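Annotated sample (chain length 66).
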Amino acid sequence: MENNIFNTEVTLSGIDGNVFAIFGACIKSARRNGVPQEQVDTFLKEAKQGDYDHVLQTCHRYFDVN
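Output written by the structure step:
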């Protein structure tokens, strides 16, 4: 499984641990780094397919998480 699909970093440490804050940080990082909206939508759709652990795993797959 490929990691860092978007070839960009996102900092999740120090943010509120709810999924909405995580999604917000990821979306902001993706937009800042020129990731097309269609790809961001794909990330969100995949991340929403499971529980909290799945969200974090998906973040790690799409981003270089700090």
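Annotation: Residues 9-65 form one domain.
Annotation: The chain is about 55% helix and 5% strand.
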